[in-house]
């Protein structure tokens, strides 16, 4: 690709605006002909069943609500989620994310949309969506894609990235039965206006856990008709 073509410039701009980086550092070619940077980059997408099974057995997040501190999302997964969120217009849409854990990081390697019924304020998964999810996951594994579902994403068109009361309940339920599990929120409206993906990643605290009284980590404008819902549930969520 011509580095000075309009498409190449657009891609570079998008990568810079959204902090897209190539894993692996300096590009150095070894004797095998494959660069060490490329090999390191590929390794992040390798799914080690044994290692992941051990993490599931140890469950280090049970005793530490702040165990997961980082989220890494592949450019492919990010693009899929943004395009899907944008396609919904003012209606909320929903999908699932696949990936793995790596220490204190949740790595999102891919994402897929769910056929759900959404409104301007909420999104609800019906029986057909769950059936689709199961079939999609089974087909992936048959094709050699072994990654588990590590979270869900949905859109908040025009009103920022945070978890509503319904979102908090959904995430708490998921964390009880599908750990480790992550919630991602994308605002497609603000993404288009800012030219940068407006995104947030969240997990909920366990039932009964009281977090330290800390100020909200990031300022964002929230519409008046949403602010009460945000305030009531903000202490149940870690971002």
TrEMBL record:
PROSITE patterns: MPN. Coiled coil: none annotated. One of its GO terms (cellular component) is COP9 signalosome. The keyword Zinc applies. GO terms for biological process: COP9 signalosome assembly; negative regulation of photomorphogenesis; positive regulation of G2/M transition of mitotic cell cycle; proteolysis. It holds the Pfam family JAB. This is MPN domain-containing protein. It comes from the Eukaryota. It comes from Genlisea aurea. Keywords: Hydrolase, Metal-binding, Metalloprotease, Protease, Signalosome, Zinc. One of its GO terms (molecular function) is metal ion binding. Belongs to the peptidase M67A family. CSN5 subfamily. Its cofactor is a divalent metal cation. CDD domains: MPN_RPN11_CSN5. SMART domains: JAB_MPN.
């Amino acid at each position: 690709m011509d580095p000075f073509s309009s498409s190449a410039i657009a891609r570079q701009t998008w990568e810079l605006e959204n902090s897209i980086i190539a894993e692996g550092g300096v590009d150095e070619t070894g004797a095998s002909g494959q660069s060490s940077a490329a090999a390191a980059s590929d390794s992040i997408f390798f799914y080690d069943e044994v290692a992941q099974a051990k993490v599931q057995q140890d469950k280090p997040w049970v005793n530490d609500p702040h165990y997961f501190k980082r989220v890494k999302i592949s450019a492919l997964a990010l693009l899929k989620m943004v395009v899907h969120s944008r396609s919904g217009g003012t209606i909320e849409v929903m999908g699932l994310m696949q990936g793995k854990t790596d220490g204190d990081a949740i790595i999102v390697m891919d994402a897929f949309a769910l056929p759900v019924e959404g409104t301007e304020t909420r999104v609800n998964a019906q029986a057909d969506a769950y059936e689709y999810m199961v079939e999609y996951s089974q087909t992936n594994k048959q094709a050699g894609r072994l990654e588990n579902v590590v979270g869900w994403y949905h859109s908040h068109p025009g009103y920022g990235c945070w978890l509503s009361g319904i979102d908090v309940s959904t995430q708490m339920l998921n964390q009880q039965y599908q750990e480790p599990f992550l919630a991602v929120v994308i605002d497609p409206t603000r993404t288009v206006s800012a030219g940068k993906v407006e995104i947030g990643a969240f997990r909920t605290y366990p039932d009964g856990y009281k977090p330290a009284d800390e100020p909200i980590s990031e300022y964002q404008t929230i519409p008046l008709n949403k602010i009460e819902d945000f305030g009531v549930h903000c202490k149940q969520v870690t971002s």
